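step 3/5: co-fold with tryptophan
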Amino acid sequence: MQANRAHWSSRIAFVLAATGSAIGLGNIWKFPYMAGANGGSAFVLVYLGCIALIGFPLMIAEIYIGKKSQKNTIEAFETLHHAGTFWKSAGFLGMLGCFLVLSFYSLVGGWVLDFEYQSLLHRFANESDDFVKNYFVDLIHNRQGTQIFWHSTFMLITIGIVAKGVSNGLEKWNKILMPILFSLLIFLFVYSLFLEGFKESIHFLFAADFSKLTWKSVLEAVGHAFFTLSLGMGSMIIYGSYMEKEGPVLKQAAAVVLLDTFIALLAGTIIFTIVYTFNAEPGAGPGLMFVTLPLLFKQIPGSWFVSNAFFILVFFAALTSAISILEVLSAYLIDTKKWSRIKATFLVGGAMWICGVLCAYPKLIIFGKNNVFDVFDILSSKITMPLTGIMISIFFGWVLGPKAIEEAVGIRSKFLLQGLVWVVRVIAPICVAVMLYKGILEVF
Ligand code: TRP
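step 4/5: write tokens
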């Protein structure tokens, strides 16, 4: 173990940081629009199933691999197995995923910043509904300069925090931002309780209707389970590696998974309450949050306050996730390649920034059919994350084996332990492999 490796100051600090990584645009922006586009409740049910059956065990695996090895996502596999092990390719694949995700994630973070800026100016308050509805579409299609400006701002803030390191950067900011975020969401939830669309929203999200279930939505649910829990890229390995080496990880993994799921459902309920209260379109796609919410905000009392609160909240959520993505690549370059933290964060962040700029051009088609944004999103959620996930599951279940699983879980119940061994050895890899296969068919 490296004597001078930075560590979280407490277990709570780890849980806050890992929850900060997990809770992000995936929960507040992506989950509601995917649920909306896939018919609601059945998608939600499959998503919950994936979280329990695949997400939770993989969360345990990733945190354990980091904690036990005390290393970055490449060296972790070498430390736990042997130098030059094949399994470190899971680490590289994860890094590729990080690169793809943060490029478009920062662009979306930039959209959030633009909406926050408009909220600050109270811009939507006196405009027509049509203006508000068209604002998002116009931003995406015609205003590349504005998008790039905010994308640059978002990326610079992310780089700035990661450049400061574990305790002064990651931990400090997560400690401040996460509690604010929880409070704001609870406030908005209580607010939505009093709107008339609340009941319909609950019905849409929770009254399972399997007639709407398709292979495509199952595929998206699996991909999203990875995305929302920050799995399959090494974020949880790297955050785990800043914990003290000894002790089980079961409780921490459970806390992160439960909090993330809770927040996604809370955000979903709020957004669909608004959709049903104001007769908006649930299947509106990526614009859902950006179109429906400003519509609501301009009509309610205290609109300036509520809309600012909301977009600041989303920005914080996105930021605490973005830093966990950048940290994966930076930690590798710092530990293994001996780069300085400043050099690593700025160079990697800069390269992602360039790719993010390409994502801002929806008409820039690559590989024949999709634009850069979609290609990055599809490649990461449907290919690199599942593939990395399968490798980590097999590594945990077969290479490290039942002893490690027992150590990670820290309980003596033979029954539970056997169940988990089965899940990580067989069930999770097979389920994800089927999805990966379907995903590959869809992409090529
Ligand atoms: N989980 C974050 C979200 O829901 C995004 C994220 C952070 C992520 N780190 C990741 C996604 C690692 C995949 C892998 O917005």
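step 5/5: annotate
Residues 21-22, 24-27, 101, 227-228, 230, 233, 235, 321, 324-325 surround tryptophan (CB under 6 Å).
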